[in-house]
């Protein structure tokens, strides 16, 4: 797991640099919080079992791409795509997979942008290209996903139908709220750039 920790630390440092540089230039932080975690052994076993692979270290390396995971929370949806562009510009990072559950939410209402990136970790005697999962969400998406995640485990992975319907309705409200906040931000940016409303 050490190599995944190193890769996660590298990506974390990059994100902090990008956020601070952006703050310095634009007096604004696109990133609200960053959380990171290494997947527990139990989580790795569950993922291999769910995907139907034998429990071997080779299969873990080959099929579990979120051993190192970073979650970025942003205020606005546009910030998520801004951070995505900044990540794509990093010459030593390769985006190997991108799932946009914001453009295309999951049927239960889940929204987030998921990236799997590859980053070289320079060790004393070798360079190891290592995968890190990055999930990006707005504060509202994160609120929804945390609650849904808790209920998923509380109800032993089978959330009752009535609650699922309520969660879907909350996800629709969350989308409307994010769109409203984005439009207020556009109006503020418009005024800050010296324009006035008619
Ligand atoms: P944990 O405990 O968060 O680590 P993959 O397993 O990545 O090969 P999958 O399942 O299609 O393939 O990946 P996807 O859709 O990119 O989702 C991976 C992670 O996104 C999950 O990790 C969750 O963290 C999060 N996620 C995806 N769908 C949902 C959802 O409906 N609700 C919530 N709350 N989170 C979701 P893990 O490993 O499943 O769990």
Please explain how this structure is put together.
The protein is of the alpha+beta class. The protein has a single domain, classed as Beta Polymerase, domain 2 (2-Layer Sandwich), CATH 3.30.460. It contains 6 helices and 5 strands; from the N terminus they run H-E-H-H-E-H-E-E-E-H-H. A 5-stranded mixed β-sheet has the order 1-2-5-4-3. Helix 5 packs antiparallel against helix 6. The chain starts with a helix and ends in a 6-residue tail after the last helix. It binds ligand 0O2. The site of ligand 0O2 has 12 residues, from helix 2 and helix 5.
Please outline the helices and strands:
Layout: H1 2-26, E1 33-38, H2 41-51, H3 57-63, E2 68-74, H4 77-89, E3 94-100, E4 113-122, E5 127-138, H5 139-154, H6 161-192
Parallel strand pairs: 2-5
Antiparallel strand pairs: 1-2, 3-4, 4-5
The site of ligand 0O2 has 12 residues, from α2 and α5.
């Amino acid at each position: 797991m050490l190599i995944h920790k190193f890769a996660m630390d590298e990506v974390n440092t990059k994100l902090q640099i990008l956020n601070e540089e952006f703050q310095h230039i634009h007096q604004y932080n696109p990133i609200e919080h960053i959380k990171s975690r290494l997947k527990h052994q139990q989580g790795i076993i569950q993922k291999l079992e769910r995907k139907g692979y034998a429990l071997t270290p080779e299969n873990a390396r080959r099929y579990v791409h979120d051993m190192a995971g970073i979650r970025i929370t942003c205020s606005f949806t546009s910030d998520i795509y801004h951070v995505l562009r900044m990540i794509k510009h990093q010459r030593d990072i390769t985006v190997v997979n991108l799932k946009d559950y914001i453009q295309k939410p999951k049927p239960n209402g889940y929204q987030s942008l998921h990236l799997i990136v590859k980053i070289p970790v320079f060790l004393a005697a070798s360079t190891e290209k290592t995968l890190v999962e990055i999930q990006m969400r707005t504060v509202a998406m994160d609120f929804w996903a945390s609650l849904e995640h808790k209920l998923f485990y509380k109800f032993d992975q089978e959330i009752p139908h009535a609650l699922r319907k309520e969660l879907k309705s909350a996800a629709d409200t969350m989308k409307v709220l994010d769109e409203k906040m984005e439009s207020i931000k556009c109006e503020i940016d418009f005024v800050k750039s010296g324009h006035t409303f008619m």
